[in-house]
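TASK: fixed-backbone design
INPUT:
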C-alpha cells in the first residue's frame, strides 16, 4: 500500500507523469536504500576514504545512472548527453546543481 501511495504522489508531479517507468524506479529506489549499501561494497571494495576527489558521483548517483542507462538502452556517451539534454535524466540521477559526469567517468566508476 505504501508503494501505491508513493507512486500516486510521484504522478502528481507533472514531470514524473511523462515517464511513469522512471517514477516507479525512483519510488522503489527511495524505499529501498539498502540497495545502495550493497552496491557501495562493490564500488569501494570494502575500503572507504574521506580523502580523494570530491567530484565523484555518489553511490546513489551511480546506481541511478546505471538504471537510467539500462532502462533507456543507452551507451555511456548517450548517457552523458542525456544528463545535459534531459531534465528527466538529471532529475532521476539527482544531479541537482552539479555538473553532469562524463561518459568515461561513469563507465570507469561502474566497472569497479
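OUTPUT:
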Amino acid at each position: 500500500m505504501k508503494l501505491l501511495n508513493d507512486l500516486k504522489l510521484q504522478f502528481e508531479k507533472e514531470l514524473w507523469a511523462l515517464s511513469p517507468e522512471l517514477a516507479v524506479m525512483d519510488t522503489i529506489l527511495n524505499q529501498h536504500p539498502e540497495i545502495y549499501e550493497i552496491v557501495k561494497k562493490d564500488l569501494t571494495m570494502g575500503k572507504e576514504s574521506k580523502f580523494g576527489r570530491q567530484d565523484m558521483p555518489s553511490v546513489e548517483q551511480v546506481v541511478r545512472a546505471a538504471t537510467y542507462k539500462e532502462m533507456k538502452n543507452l551507451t555511456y556517451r548517450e548517457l552523458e548527453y542525456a544528463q545535459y539534454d534531459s531534465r528527466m535524466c538529471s532529475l532521476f540521477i539527482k544531479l541537482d546543481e552539479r555538473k553532469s559526469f562524463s561518459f568515461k567517468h561513469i563507465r570507469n566508476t561502474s566497472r569497479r
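COMMENT: The longest helix spans residues 59-72.
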